[in-house]
Specification:
414 residues, alpha+beta, ten-stranded mixed beta sheet, globular
Length: 414
């Protein structure tokens, strides 16, 4: 077929990519297919969105208007956050949070448990109040928070159907400033972890695990709640714009404005601007979520193998996310800290390191990000509602039309 994901590290095994223009065409394609999955921004680094021998649906051509009503917004599943955020802001609204990249689609982000940063900000799926879904027989169903199965559907991994529309809760629009601090001593990071995470609306630490200091701390503060500070537990204000991988010599050209310049929420909460190549571009990614109470111990454990990890890295990010109740959310059941790894595009070398990294993080109950590279097989021990998820998939997709080898291995135990 010749199609691949965003990173180019996975070639899709589907027989064809279809581009339906209407929801009725989506329904017809799903009903006719033996195996089918929807494509979003193709930002997953594994085979979760593939349908070997089946078809893939590129929904970017669906004409789904953005509808703002009663403090909510309804958008098409293929809409990218960055494409409608400015429209929300102009109408006086905001989403509670955004991921690092505004380039990703709403449905794909929700389905994989994608998140932003902020100790009190849950993942993006927590904003979803309704999901319109094309099911295996081509039927069109809408589920809302009032439905008992909704926590299963919220982070659905594409296992239940093709998401055509979603409704998201909004909050009043707000402005954000972004301040970057260099060279946080590790001892201070350990001793003051809670205070650092509470320093802003969204906080991210960037490291390569072997330097004597945390290279950078990005603090994104609501302007209406900003507290000025000359430093951050030994870290000093950056003397210019920074890329997360500044230590690797990457310029900050594609990053959102820093140095305390206020701006709309959608132009500060992401790390990267919509108009530019996201992140570094030529990269691979992995991410693991550990309970917040284990954050410092897990960071120490990764630092112990820093010499193994660092040669493959572009940069790592440490950030907190509030817990939620979505059955297969990486943050199900309690607050988590995510340890994110942006790798050089050396997949074989990365895959050789992942088992060692996961062994180090296993004592902390680390859950991998569903859309990124990881090694572990069945994950049922990490998710207390896995059996309920499987049962719901069996009800909505009894023939396994939306299953694939990735889901069989990691969810269904096949």
């Amino acid at each position: 077929m010749g199609e691949s994901n965003w990173a180019g590290n996975h070639a899709y095994g589907a027989d064809a990519v279809l581009t339906p223009r209407t929801v009725d065409e989506v329904r017809e394609a799903v009903a006719a297919a033996a195996g089918v999955k929807a494509l979003g921004s193709r930002h997953c680094f594994n085979a979760i969105a593939d349908s070997p021998g089946g078809v893939l649906l590129d929904l970017s051509g669906l004409d789904t208007p953005v509808e703002i009503h009663d403090g909510t917004v309804t958008v098409g599943g293929s809409a990218r956050y960055g494409d409608f955020a400015a429209q929300l802001h102009a109408a006086g609204f905001a989403l509670p949070n955004l991921a690092s990249l505004p380039h990703i689609t709403v449905a794909g982000s929700i389905a994989t448990g994608t998140h932003g940063s902020g100790r009190r900000q849950p993942g993006l799926a927590s904003a979803v109040s309704a999901i319109e879904l094309v099911t295996a027989d081509g039927g069109l169903r809408t589920f809302t928070r009032e439905d008992g199965e909704f926590p299963g559907l919220a982070v659905g991994l594409g296992a239940f159907g093709v998401v055509t529309r979603l409704t998201l809760d909004l909050v009043p629009a707000f402005d954000v400033r972004q301040d970057v601090f260099d060279d946080l001593p590790w001892d201070a990071a350990y001793r003051h972890f809670d205070e650092i995470e509470d320093a802003g609306y969204s906080v991210s630490m960037f490291t390569n695990w072997v330097h004597d200091v945390v290279d950078q701390v990005w603090v994104k503060s609501r302007v209406d709640a900003f507290t000025d500070r000359p430093g951050l537990f030994g870290a000093v204000p950056a003397d210019g714009p920074r890329h997360p991988a500044h230590a690797a010599g990457i310029p900050a050209d594609n990053c959102t404005p820093q140095q305390g310049v206020p701006g709309p929420w959608h132009e500060r909460l992401p790390h990267f601007a919509l108009a530019f190549t996201p992140s570094v571009g030529d990269e691979l990614q992995s991410e693991y979520f550990v309970p917040y109470r284990h954050a410092v111990a897990a960071v120490r454990a990764v630092r112990e193998i820093g010499d193994l990890v660092a040669p493959l890295l572009l940069v790592s990010e440490i950030r907190a996310i509030a817990g939620d109740e979505a059955w297969l959310s990486p943050c199900h059941g309690g607050d988590r800290v995510a340890l994110h790894f942006t790798w050089q595009p050396r997949q074989a070398d990365v895959e050789a390191v992942l088992p060692v990294l996961e062994e180090r993080l296993a004592p902390f109950g680390a859950r991998p990000h569903w859309g990124k590279l990881f090694h572990s097989g069945g994950l049922e021990a990490l998710y207390p509602r896995m059996a309920d998820f499987r049962a719901l998939a069996g009800e909505l997709d009894p023939g396994g039309k939306f299953r694939n080898p990735f889901l069989d291995r990691h969810v269904f135990g096949g």
